[in-house]
Design goal:
mainly alpha
Length: 137
């Protein structure tokens, strides 16, 4: 055999079979990820959480400002106290004492009861919205 003879095993390199990577199937979007906008129940839940969160924030600020004896003559303090009074008013009279006072600081017990009351109302509203959800939990 000659050097140029292709049959000679010393001259012809051995070839390995090529490895072919599996082709992945194209991803199909799930029905939930097809739309980026929340459904009606989720949107309702978000609105309820936002509104009750704002109410709870105002009541918590009221408790802190009265406990720290904030000056009611300040426009911001006055606005917070006036707005939060609307949400605390339904809970006035639940306890025998609405507030405890020591010096200038006031612990507004009616506001604390109101904070608990609004939180319970939020939980009930979220529970009611959860009943009407279409997708399984």
């Amino acid at each position: 055999m000659s050097i140029a003879d292709p049959v000679d095993p010393a001259v012809v390199p051995t070839q390995q079979p090529a490895v072919v990577a599996p082709v992945a199937a194209p991803a199909t979007p799930s029905p939930r990820s097809a739309s980026m906008r929340p459904g009606g129940a989720e949107l309702s839940r978000r609105v309820v959480v936002l509104l009750f969160g704002l109410i709870q924030l105002m009541i918590a600020l009221r408790v802190v400002l009265l406990a720290l004896d904030a000056r009611a003559g300040n426009a911001l303090v006055s606005a917070i106290l006036n707005i939060s009074q609307v949400f605390v008013a339904p809970f006035n009279g639940v306890l025998h004492t609405n507030a405890l006072q020591s010096g200038g600081a006031i612990l507004d017990l009616a506001a604390i009861v109101a904070l608990v009351g609004w939180t319970v109302l939020e939980i009930v509203a979220l529970w009611a919205i959860g009943i009407f959800r279409r997708e399984p939990a």
